[in-house]
Amino acid sequence: MIPELGIIEGYFGRMWSWPDRAFVLRTLAAAGYGFFHYAPKGEARLRRGWRDPFDDAALHELAAFARLCRALGVRFGIGLTPYEAHLDSGPTARRALKAKLSQLRDLGLEDLVILFDDMRGDLPDLAARQADIVSTCLVEAVAERHFVVPSYYSDDPILDRVFGARPAHYLRDLGRGLASTVSVYWTGEAVCSKTYDIVHLDRVSSELERPVSLWDNYPVNDGPRMSAYLHLRGFPRTHADLAGRVRHHAINPMLQPRLGLIAALTLPIVYRAGQAHAEAEALRDAAVQVLGESLADRLLADLPLLQHAGRSGAGLDLSRLIDRYGGLDHPAALEIVDWACGGYAMGDELVRTQ
């Protein structure tokens, strides 16, 4: 069974414009994507500044996008990171959470994602604290469905090095503490997994007592290292093996909204074609759909350098690249030029503060 496909806008760095977001939504809704979760790291009012209310202008933009989602048959959700609320379970933090949820309720959300990533997690009762916060969100009835991103959303040891050693039996305890209707996002064996081992996913699903909802960190290219690359290749044939194993499959998109559509459009094709998936053919079809035939041919010829050499890699002449795409009247060509000029470059400080 093909999992429900969606977008989880969960990248660090420059945020998309609302027109770009609408264009991505329209394109992927037509391709079979069924939900859109809005949770960019740059939206402070959903992360470190989550206690701050949205102003009227921001609420108007969110409501307009929610209406567009509904018109296209796509479920709209917001990702809220109640940053470090699990460290303060007192009445002040609980009132602040309820106030934020009250604002979000007025948007008529279908989905609410509660994120506990990117913060300290080395507490023995971490799972119980987080399950209690999620319970509050369910009681407030902000959305029809609920998702959770654990503090340790992968087996990747980098999470323990950065945020403290994960508590023993954390996933098992979190799964037992959450209502059975709550879905749990998981990125795989690594934060950015290229493939997904079925035995691994089955083990995690067993611990959580529900099928995992996959947070796929491809084609996202945020962070100081990845922002130097454009992730243009399509999804691999092996992803077809995930059918029937995961509840949802959400992709975290590229910083470049138009270019990111190329990879995104191949995922539904992988699931439909299964092991008969023709990767090269699907990639070209997606590139032509996004770029038109002439620009698609040009981009595919440059793809090895853009994806694997990167902006500072050997073999990529940035001035030539800017000349090659700078005169083209296409939004995706402008994204390439902007990227080549360092417009999407990120430093460690940005990741630490968003």
UniProtKB/TrEMBL annotation:
Source domain of life: Bacteria
Name of protein: GH84 domain-containing protein
Stated family: Belongs to the glycosyl hydrolase 84 family.
Tagged with keyword Nucleus: no
Residue numbers annotated as active site: D118
Residue span, GH84 domain: 3-275
Keyword Hydrolase belongs to the record: yes
Pfam families, per database record: NAGidase
GO molecular function, one term: hexosaminidase activity
Keywords carried by this UniProt record: Glycosidase, Hydrolase
Biological-process GO terms, alphabetical: carbohydrate derivative metabolic process
